[in-house]
Design goal:
One of its GO terms (cellular component) is membrane. It is a single chain. The chain is 38% helix and 17% strand. The protein has 256 residues and is of the alpha+beta class. The protein folds into two domains: 5-99, no CATH class; 122-246, Orthogonal Bundle (Lysozyme). Strands 2-1-3 form a three-stranded antiparallel beta sheet. A hairpin with a 2-residue loop joins strand 1 and strand 2. Helix 5 (181-198) crosses helix 6, helix 6 crosses helix 7 (214-220) and helix 6 packs across helix 8. The protein starts with 7 loop residues before the first helix and ends in a 10-residue tail after the last helix.
Length: 256
């Protein structure tokens, strides 16, 4: 199951020929996101209106990076609906593989999904969480995905430090030394607070913008269809669940 909003235009292109759909629903359940042609039972869904010509946008499905998924068909309220989530009563309608756009500004991150690490920079994360109001577990998940907590980390695209701040982002938040763990975590937390406010607490979009930039999220009206960003968002959400559990915070219940 693909778990990001980047499938919006793809799902529409598939659904248009079978259901004349022009509205796609972004449905959240736990830490996963699916796209559907009707609201999913048991999920928190919001409608997304899609331009009929969106799938024809230049370079929308370019030749750099590949991701795959499954579109499921089921009956709901007396009609056929389509979704990327395998709900009870669903049957496989179509398996697909799509190439993602070239020249993407994102990077997959230097950290790998693994067990929660509570010791690295613990004092700095607690201080940043108190100062910004951003969930400590969320900040740790971002740092784990970005750098595996390495204060000296430098990405191939120039991101620096624990929170992998790009130079322009570091300047924006007054981070004089991006390789200082304390400064990086503080700047990264303030940047994340800005993103969470911008996206009304939507962690999926905040993570996507942290990775690929606000401009890319705005352009694609959701998670950009970049191979790196798709992998990054899934990684961060998986890590967030692990950090919440390790810190005794339990499973996050989506706001309604």
């Amino acid at each position: 199951m693909m778990r990001t909003a980047a499938l919006c235009t793809l799902l529409l292109s598939l659904a248009c020929g079978i259901a004349d759909a022009r509205t796609v629903y972004r449905c959240v359940r736990g830490n996963s996101v699916s796209m559907a042609t009707a609201p999913e039972p048991g999920s928190r869904c919001t409608a997304r209106e899609i331009d009929d010509t969106a799938v024809q946008a230049p370079n929308l499905w370019g030749n750099m990076g590949v991701f795959s998924g499954v579109l499921y068909e089921r009956e709901q309220d007396g009609r056929l609906v389509y979704s990327t989530r395998n709900l009870p009563g669903s049957r496989v309608y179509l398996k697909f593989t799509v190439a993602t756009p070239p020249g993407e500004p994102a990077h997959e991150g230097l950290g790998k999904v693994g067990p929660a690490q509570l010791a690295p920079h613990a004092r700095q994360f607690k201080a940043a969480a108190r100062a910004t109001g951003v969930d400590d577990a969320w900040l740790r998940a971002i740092a784990h995905a970005e750098s595996n907590f390495d204060a000296a980390a430098v990405s191939p695209k120039g991101a620096l430090g624990v929170m992998q701040l790009m130079p322009e982002t570091a300047r924006e938040y007054g981070v004089a030394d991006p390789l200082s763990a304390a400064q990086s975590i503080d700047g990264g937390a303030r940047h994340m607070r800005t993103l969470l406010r911008r996206y009304h607490g939507d962690r999926t979009l905040a993570a996507a913008a942290y990775n690929a930039g606000i401009g890319a999220v705005t352009h694609y009206k959701g998670v950009p269809p970049y191979a790196e960003t798709l992998a990054y968002v899934d990684k961060v959400m998986a890590l967030y669940a692990r950090y919440r559990q390790a810190m005794g915070m339990g499973v996050e219940v989506p706001a309604r």
